[in-house]
Amino acid sequence: MNNQTYTIPVRYRKMENLHIVFWLLKDISWCMLWQPLGIAMIFPTLIIAVIITIRNRQYMSELCHNIAIVVWITANSYWMVSEFLEFDALPVYNDITYKYLAVIPFSIGILTLAWYYLLWKPTHKNVGETM
């Protein structure tokens, strides 16, 4: 068993913690129907998620999980905006409404993690990873 330690610099950890605050503010705003704050919180939440992804790209496990988070926030934000602007229930095709288009980025996240766990990780057992 490899006993390497993965550490996160304090300045990165502070950014990750602030990211959680923005994410919670976005989702609370969605829940409370505070449209301006909810829409405004998309930007810092998504920007910090992208920065975290770029900073941790040297570890495939971190990269894949952070890509999944970025697309999750994207899907979640799209869904919130579709409800705020009241186009979520409009039909795109037959019974498929605009809200259901959020499944596209959600699926990209699932496919990214499936690729990591099912294909990459089993074939890279000797690579130092965080997971």
Tags for this model:
single chain, 131 residues, mainly alpha, 4 helices, flat
Q: What share of residues are in beta strands? A: under 5%
Separation of the first and last Cα atoms: 13 Å
* Main sheet makeup: 2 strands, antiparallel
**How many helix segments?**
4
Number of domains: 1
> Strands across the major sheet, in which order?
1-2
Count of beta strands:
2
Shape annotation? flat
What sequence of helices (H) and strands (E) makes up the elements? HHHEEH
Instruction: From the alpha carbons, calculate the radius of gyration and give it in angstroms.
Output: 17 Å
In the predicted model, the low-confidence regions spanning at least 5 consecutive residues are none
> Percent helix among the residues?
55-70%
Assembly classification = single chain
What structural class do helix, strand and pairing data support? mainly alpha
Mean pLDDT across the residues is 93
